[in-house]
Amino acid sequence: MTSDGGMTVPDHCVQALARARRHSVDTAGALAVAHTRDGGTDLYLLVYPDHLELASTGGLLRTGAGRETVLLTAVDRVTARDRLFRSSVEIDTGGNTLSFRAGRDTAAYLAALIRQRMTAGPDNSALLHHLAELHAAGVLDDAEYAAKRAALLD
Question: How far is 24 from 87, CA to CA, in rounded Å?
Answer without folding.
Answer: 26
